[in-house]
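Quick one: TRAP transporter small permease protein from Falsiroseomonas selenitidurans, structure tokens please.
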Amino acid sequence: MRRFESGLLWLNRFLCAALLVAACALVFANVVLRYGFGVSLAWAEEASRYMMIWLAFLAAGLALREGAHIAVDLLPEALPEPAARWLRALILAAIAGFLGLLLVLGINYADFAMMQRSPVLRLSMGLVYLAIPVGTALMLLHLALMAPRFVLRPRDEAAQVRAAEMGSL
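--- reply ---
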């Protein structure tokens, strides 16, 4: 399982890095061509926008693993450890429920937009909107892999001090 998880992380990071490099290179090349040679790639702006959309959804699972999404952890830190674990499990269940709903709606939205074409590239917009269910499925997978560590994680010393101070108020 550990090997699968490290492979998933490597692939996810590689795809994000590749999309970021490709989008930046495309925008840079288009700026150089436009201002240096008076020629512009009409499709560059649209392609880089779609790459950034895919990048955002693919990177969301990595951000979830790192705790980089906005979170309020005041209540779990103030509770005794057994109650904090139950609350973290409840939070995970709520996140999983939201992501499950987003996955279903994302699939429906991508399917709905399959016949619509982008203005310049004439690309199916459903392929662009597939970033939603694919990124959401990746987030669910990352959530499942990190769930035991999140729920059972021991508090660090600073969190224990904060919890004790809140309990004495």
